[in-house]
Amino acid sequence: MTRVATVPLQRTMAGAISKAQEKLAITQQQLSTGKKAPDFAALGTEAVRNLSAHSLLEQQKSQSTVAKRVGTTMGLYQGHIEALSKSTGDLRQQILNAIGTGDIAGLQNSMEAAFSQMKATLTASEGGTPLFAGSQTDQTPFSVNTLADAATVPANQAFHDDNVLASARVADGVDVTYGISASSIGKGLYDAFRTMAQMGTITSPLSAAQKASLQQAYDQLGTGLDQVAAVNADNGRKQNQVEDLTNRGEDRALLLQKVIQDNEDADLGQVALDLSQQKTVLEASYSVFSQLSGLSLVKYL
User: Which helix (H) or strand (E) holds 63?
Assistant: First the structure.
C-alpha cells in the first residue's frame, strides 16, 4: 500500500524557502551597497587581484597628490622668475637707451624698482617657507634691502641659500629634483645691480665714467638674464615631465579603478531583475508550503 506523508514534503519546502530567502537577502544587500560581495573573502579567486589593485591605486593616488603639489610649486617658480626676467629686461633696454641717447629720465627709479622686484622674487615664499632658500628655510635667502645697500655688500654675504634642492617621487622609481636656489637666478643680476649702486647718483649729461659703468651693468644684466632664462627653461622642462607623469598616473588610476569595479561592483540592472525573480520564487514557495500544510487525510476518509 502506498503511504502518503506531508511532513517530509513540508521539510523539503521549508529548506527551499530558506535558500530562497538567503538568495533574496544577498540580492537586497547588493542593491543597497552596490557591491557584489560583503567582503574580500566572498570574492573568491579575484580577492588577491583586487587587494593588489586597491594597494596600487592608493599608491598611485599618493604619487598623484605629490606630483600635483610639485607642479604647483614649479608654477610659482615660473611666475616669479618671469616677473624678474621682465623687470630686468626692461631695465636693460632703458640702460641701452640712456647710453645711446643720454636720456636718463626715470632711470634711477627704474633701477631701484627692478632691484625691489629681484628682492621680492628671491625672498618669495609658499605657506611661510622661502621658495628659493634650498634647505636653509629658517632664514631669508637674500638679505640686501635696497639698491644703495648693494654697493657695499658682496654677493657671498647677500645670498644665504645652498645647493640642497627639493626633490619628490612623482611616479614608481621616478624622483624629480625641482628646487631652485636664489643664487642660481640672482647672482649674475646682483653683480649688475652692484655696478649700478656703486655709480652713485646719475647726472645729466652722463660722464664718460658713468657711461662705462652703465655699459658694464648692461653687459652684466645680459649675462644674468641668460642665467635666469636657463634656470626657467630647466624648470619648464621639469614641469612638462611632471605633467606627463601626472597624466599617465591618472590613466593608470582609471585602469585600476575599472579592475576593482569589474570585480566588486554589482550590475544594478541585473540585481533588480534577480530581485524580482527571487521575490516571485519565494512567494510561490510560501504558497506551496501553505497548501501542503493544509493537507489532511481526514478530508478523504
Answer: helix 47-101
**Model confidence, pTM:** 0.71
CA distances from 32 to 16, 257, 266 (A): 24, 20, 10
Residues 6+ positions from 267 with CB-CB distance below 8 Å: none
CA distance 213 to 172: 53
Helices (H) and strands (E) in the chain, counts: 7, 4
Residue 204 grid coordinates: 645729466
Burial of residue 181 (CB within 10 Å: 0-12, 13-18, 19+) is buried
Q: What is the DSSP letter of 35?
A: B
**What's the confidence (pLDDT) of residue 53?**
79
* Cell 606627463 -> residue: 244
In 3D space, the residue among 54, 57, 56, 62 whose CA is nearest the CA of residue 168 turns out to be 62
Range with the poorest average pLDDT among 113-117, 122-126, 198-202:
198-202
Q: Which three cell numbers stand for residue 172?
A: 614608481
Neighbours of 123 (CB within 10 A): 17
183: exposed, middle or buried (Cβ count in 10 Å: 0-12, 13-18, 19+): buried
Contact 145, 119 (CB under 8 A): yes
CB 31 within 8 A of CB 275: yes
Maximum alpha-carbon separation in the chain: 139
The DSSP element (H or E) to which 174 belongs, if any, is strand 174-177
Give the separation between CA 269 and CA 202, rounded to whole angstroms.
Answer: 83
Residue 1 — pLDDT band, cuts 50, 70, 90? very low
**Among 295, 221, 282, which Cα is nearest to 18's?**
282
| Tens of pLDDT, residues 241-279 | 999 988 888 888 888 888 777 776 655 566 566 656 767
